[in-house]
Here is the input.
Amino acid sequence: MHRPPQGTLKLPTELSQGNVAKLLRGAGLRPTRQRVALAHLLFAEGDRHITAETLHEEALTKKVPVSLATVYNTLHQFTEAGLLREVAVEGAKTYFDTNTSNHYHFFCEHSGRLLDIATGSIRIEGLPEAPDGMAISRVDVLVRLVDK
Ligand SMILES: [Zn+2]
Here is the structure.
């Protein structure tokens, strides 16, 4: 599978429709109307962690007519293209992270929210050797939170 280098895509903070189209083209995706609309919702407000269901609700609220299936497909296409990073939390729940750099997460079990952990605040030691013919692609750390 093609994997673009992580953390190399710099997203402009102010995203106009034109910038969104450029961003999509730069990632090798045709800027269809639905992709542009969804990319705008995803990337216009800085880093966020979002599920397909939440993005779908947001789209409907903003009068963007898309089906949940289209939202799923688009999120996976964006992930393949290196615009998003997938964070699997548990079971069927997948979050899509607009911050594609290598970082870890807090997961709030009560609210279901994901929060970034400052890079450099966790050190991983004693990683096992990958089995023959394989290499470690990345290490995911999820620190689960409950209310005190
Ligand atoms: Zn994150």
Q: What stands out?
A: The first strand starts at residue 49 and ends at 50. The pocket of zinc ion is lined by residues 49, 97, 99, 103, 105, 116 (CB under 6 Å).
